[in-house]
Structures are given as structure tokens and as C-alpha cells.
Amino acid sequence: MKFNISLRGSSKKRTKEVKEEKAPPLPLATPPDSPTKASTFSWSSSTVAAAEQESTYPSLLSTFSKASLSEPPASAAAPPPFSFHSDQKLSAIVVGAGFAGLSAAIGLARQGWSVTIVERSGGPSKHGDCLTIGANAAKIIRRWGGGEVFDEMWQISAQGGAWLMKDEKGETLRTEDLRDFPALYGAPVLQGHRGQFLGLLGLEARLNLVNIRLSMEVVRYIDSKKSPGLVVFDGKHEETLFADVIVVADGFNSKSRELIVDSSRPTFLRPQPSTSTLDTSFTSPPPTSNYSVHRGLVRSEAIRANPRTAYLLDGCSRTWLGDDCHLTMTPLDKGRQISFNFIHSDFRGGPATLDWRQRRPISEVLELIEGWDDTLVEAIKTFGTYLHWAKTEEDAAERWTSAGGKIILIGDAVHPLPPSSFQGGSQAIEDGASLAVCLALSGGREGVPRALRAFESMRKPRVAEALEAGKQQRSLWHTWRSTGRLASHLDLLIAKFYHYDAELQTLAMFERTVQRGDEPSWAMAEGRKSEVLAKLQVDKHPPLGELFEQGKPRPRR
Ligand SMILES: Cc1cc2nc3c(=O)[nH]c(=O)nc-3n(C[C@H](O)[C@H](O)[C@H](O)COP(=O)(O)OP(=O)(O)OC[C@H]3O[C@@H](n4cnc5c(N)ncnc54)[C@H](O)[C@@H]3O)c2cc1C
């Protein structure tokens, strides 16, 4: 079979011969209920269109015209040819353009792989509100290109330099000084709008010549030991694609997890017939954590205009700690928007959902925080509506790799994390970066199963720790009064994750992880490690400079 991996809108085309295999396709548990209409909308032009419409998108996006984005920008030099595997580039198909999928795609493209992403939706999702990217993931993003995407993410992040923990009445119990983090951990914490961050990661992928094919839903996998494949559906036609490796990053509600590694796990959502694939409803109850989230996002004009609430737009995050609950408020997008997340035990709220369009009246939240800090209550009144988001919790999947050894699941698809870990996006980015290093170190096509096995055994303990830390953080914040803890003990527990460098750790551990597995005598080819390290450009990124306003006193409230 012959297929083209083409660069959308570009005259450059790579044609590749791939032998078709007779491996039986894995069946879909349920047929694709709601095919997405194929779209001509490309990642880059849709992001720019959104920027023009909302005028809240980052400046990097608006500096590119639609015309220039239909071609990779001139500055996007093709990655250097891959030298040690074979003459022909290795190819990867990535399923899902979320944080895990985009990071894997960028990491592999930087190592010289030819990468295609297939994404079900028609463009970068605007859903979500505040997403935290820890210093552990931000340091990886800083290495990309000349650091432009990192700079843009920082520009739209909350830059107040402090995270305040408060009691319900608003008295400050403890302040975490985030200004120290770049010096301590090599990067700041980025807190911004999920959709805007995703748009920037998509742009970085395009700059690395990743082919992003939108409105393509994966409906079947071909778990071949030789050349794994998948079938995508664009609403009209099915198409079969093959590659040297398939990286599946289809998120929390992964259908692929059920198909490839975990047939006993039910899919919790399904697309509604006759509407877009983003409409969702439960087909079976998700595993409950006994906690759920009330969350909202609003433009901040009313909060800024009120002298009693304007202080909330100073760029700092604030968390109010209540009885078995906590509420975090963070200004986003240079203070133009503000979000809140209220995590509490399920019994306090009405029915929870995973559909971003099921808005509920804000009066329900106001009832729950009656008697709390009156400036917080005034601010919450400006939201109008909120979303009661179902907060699920489950352990990581036991297996991440297919029986054929060349398809792997990463990110939320195999290890959804609780919001109180503040590491969902960060662990997804670490996964993508670490997987790319494993595949680059492992030794060509034949090395793919080895790379996936080593990746799985290195990443499982790390994400299990993040899951545990999230539960501990919640417990610490929710019980501080009943357990008589001192306010000075209300630490941001997750900060212990920020030292970690997923790319360098993978480089250091890969060979011995393989040897401790089922290949005790395997040795990495001479020079391979330094070649991979050089492509990571660890030392080449520019110095961080002064990120925070100098001499600014810590906020008191
Ligand atoms: C709608 C939404 C909003 C969120 N909002 C927040 C937030 O505000 N704050 C926060 O901290 N965390 C939020 N999260 C969680 C956070 O984004 C995740 O923890 C993190 O991004 C994990 O990344 P991922 O790449 O593994 O999965 P995701 O980011 O969920 O990405 C999965 C991608 O796969 C695509 N996909 C799914 N099935 C298929 C298929 N069959 N074929 C092709 N593509 C497919 C999806 O469209 C999606 O783009 C949100 C998650 C979602 C889904």
C-alpha cells in the first residue's frame, strides 16, 4: 500500500511505501455513533481566527497571517536528517492533539521522526479554564525552538508570583512564594487558559512540521507486530494509516484504552447522535472519587470595576480552605478573565456532568459558600453560571502497550489525575517528552517494542506518585482545622515534583531499565545518547531573565 504523509498546504510531500498486512483489526466496542463532519479548518488558521474573534489570544498567534500559516513559517527549518537508524525517516501516528499527544509529536519531530497527528475535533478546543503547568513540564517547553512558545505561555500566565491559602473568611494562612521557583526548579509554574495553552502547543507542532489532521476520529486499530495501523473516519470515508509506532493520547474518556489494553473498562461518554462529537453523556457511571468540581470562567470587567474585588486580578492564585472542600481562584489571560474551581464532596452538589455546555445557575455555588469571605462571594456573583464537573478517580491502567508491542497509550488515557494534583497537563507533557527520548534511544524500527516497554516501566511509578500527592494535597487542605495542623504546614505538596527533568531522567535511565527488563545484555549503540541529547538542546535555551516585577511586596490578602 502506498500513502502520502503530506504537509497540509505545502508543496513538500513525502511518499512512503508500506506493505499492507492482513492482521485482523481490533473491533470497536460500539460503532462510531456521531461522525464528525470533515473540516477544511486547519489548526493554525482556526487558532488565528479565534484570536481575531476574541482578541484575547496571545500575540505570537496574531503576528502570523493566515496565509503565512498555511505554509510552515520560513523560520521553521526542517529537523536535521535522522542519522543512526536508517536512511528512511521513522514514522509515528499520534492519536489526539491534547497535551500528551502534542508533546509526543513535538518530541519525536525534534528527534527527526516524521509525525502525523489525527484529532477528532475540528480545532484546538476552547473548553476548560485554568490549567496549571508545573515547573517540571515548563522546563521541557522552554527547550522548544528558541523558546518562543514558552515566552507566549508565560505572557498569558498568572504572574503575581504568589499562591495564598486562606480560611473561609479570607484570613491568609500561608503564602507560597512562586517567584523563587525559576531559581529553584529551572522554570516557573504556568497557570493559564487550557485552550490558549493548547493552541500554542499546536503551533509549536506545526513549526516542527508535524502534520495535524483534524476532524479525524480513530475507530479501529491494527495491532500488528510488524507495522501497526489504525482506521480513521472523517464523517464520510474511512482511511487506513500505518506507521512504525502509534502513540494513543485520546484523553480521560479513552475508547482506545478499552480497545487496546483494558476491555473491562467501560467508556463513560459517547457522542450524541446528530450533534457534534463534543456533546457527551454518561453511558455508565464513572468511578467516583466522592468529590466533584464546581467550576467557572468569566471575563473580569465587573470584578475589576468593583474596588472590593479588584485585588483578585493581581495575578496571584488564592485558595480558600473550607470543611472538606477548597475553592481556588486564578486570574487568566493578563487579567482579562478569571476562573474558579470549587472541589467538594459529591453530596453537596446536584448531578455532575462531563459536558462543558451543561451550565447551571451560580446561585447553587453561592448557597454552598454562604458566610465565606464577602469579597469572594461578590466576585462569584459575577459568574452567572457554572459547570458541575464530575470528578472521577481511578488508578493507572495496568497495561499501556498493545499485545503487538507497537501501540502505546499515554496521558489521561491511562492515568487520569485528580485536579488537586495540579499535574494532569504536566504529567501528560512529561509522558510525551519521555516517550520521544525512549524511541530515539532504542534503535530503529526493531527497537520500538523495547522503547515502549522501558517507557511504561519508567513512567508508572512517577504518575502513581502524582496521583498519591493529589490525594494528600486534598486531604491536607480539607482537614487542616479538624486535625489541628499549623497554617505553616499547608504546603503546596506538588512542588516536590518540580525538580524532575523527564527528558534527562529518561536519557539517564533508559539503558539500565531495558537491561533490568527482559534484555540484560542489551547495550545502546556508541554515540547514540549524545546524539539524542544534542537534539534536546538542553543548554541552548536562553536564560530566563527577570520574570517577576522587582521589589513588589507579597500580597497580604
Ligand atoms: C474538555 C476538557 C477540559 C479540561 N479542562 C481542564 C482545566 O480547565 N484545568 C485542568 O487542570 N485540566 C483540565 N482538563 C484536564 C487536562 O486537560 C488533562 O489532564 C490533560 O490535558 C491530559 O492531556 P491528554 O493529552 O492526555 O488528554 P486530553 O487533553 O483530554 O486530549 C485528548 C485528545 O484526544 C482527542 N480524541 C479523543 N478520542 C479521539 C479519537 N477516537 N480519535 C481522535 N482523537 C481523539 C480529543 O479530542 C482530545 O483533543 C480538561 C480536560 C478536558 C477533556
Automatic annotation (TrEMBL):
Biased composition (Polar residues): 272-283
Claim: Oxidoreductase is one of the keywords in the record: yes
Comp. bias (Pro residues): 24-34
Protein name as annotated: FAD-binding domain-containing protein
Ranges where the FAD-binding domain occurs: 91-468
Entry-linked InterPro entries: FAD-bd, FAD-dep_Monooxygenase_BioMet, FAD/NAD-bd_sf
Top-rank taxon, per record: Eukaryota
Claim: Protein transport is one of the keywords in the record: no
GO MF term set: FAD binding; monooxygenase activity
